[in-house]
Amino acid sequence: MIRVLLVQHTRLVRGAFAALLSREDDIEVVAEADGDGDVVARALACRPDVAVIDVDSRAGEEVAVRGELRERLPECRMLLMMASTTPERLRRMLDLHAAGVISTNAPPDRLVHGVRKLVRGQRFVDPEFALAALDAGANPLTPREVEVLRLTADGTPTREIAERLCLSVATVRNHLSAITRKTGGRTRIDAIRIATESGWV
C-alpha cells in the first residue's frame, strides 16, 4: 500500500481529496493535517510514503520551503498542490524540496497518477504548470536587478533600497531603468507587472 499524508487547511476540501485517494486499492490515507504546525509531527508518527501538501496556505508553503519534513523524514516524498504558480516559484519548489507539483484544479485521476509516480522514484509536474514554464521566456534580469525590483514592488523608496543593498541612489536608478528596458515596460509599475506575470520575481 502507498501510505499518504494529506495536508490541506480546509476540512471539506481535505475530506474530498482523502475520499478520492482512498478509493484506490493501492493507496491509503494514513493521516490528515491542516498545516498549522502539525505536519512534521504527523509525518513522523505515521511515516507516509508521500505527503500531499496544499501550499497555497502560508503554513503549507513554509513546510515545503523550510524543508524540515525532508530533513527529518527523507524517505517521504512531497507532492505540492497549488491553484496556480509562476515559472520562478515552480523552479524554486522543485530545486529545493518537492518531488512533484500539481494544480488543485487538475482532474482527479491526475492526483492519483502523481502519487504513484513519486512512489516509483520519479518526479511529477502537472502538465499545465510545465507548459506555462516552457512558454515563459528566460529571466532577462540579473540577481541584483531582481532584488531591486522586489523592493520597489514592496513600495520601498529608492534611497532606502540603496541603503539596504549598499548601493548609491544613482546605481539603483540605473538598475530600475535597465529593468524597465529589459521587461519592455513603459513605467516601473508596468515593469513590475510584466516581471511578476512572467515569474521573474
Automatic annotation (TrEMBL):
It comes from the Bacteria. SMART domains: HTH_LUXR. Residues 3-119 form the Response regulatory domain. InterPro entries: CheY-like_superfamily (IPR011006), Sig_transdc_resp-reg_C-effctor (IPR016032), Sig_transdc_resp-reg_receiver (IPR001789), Tscrpt_reg_LuxR_C (IPR000792), WalR-like (IPR039420). The modification 4-aspartylphosphate is found at D54. Keywords: DNA-binding, Phosphoprotein. Signal peptide: none annotated. The keyword Nucleotide-binding does not apply. It holds the Pfam family GerE. Residues 134-199 form the HTH luxR-type domain. The keyword Phosphoprotein applies. Transmembrane segments: none annotated. This is Response regulator transcription factor.
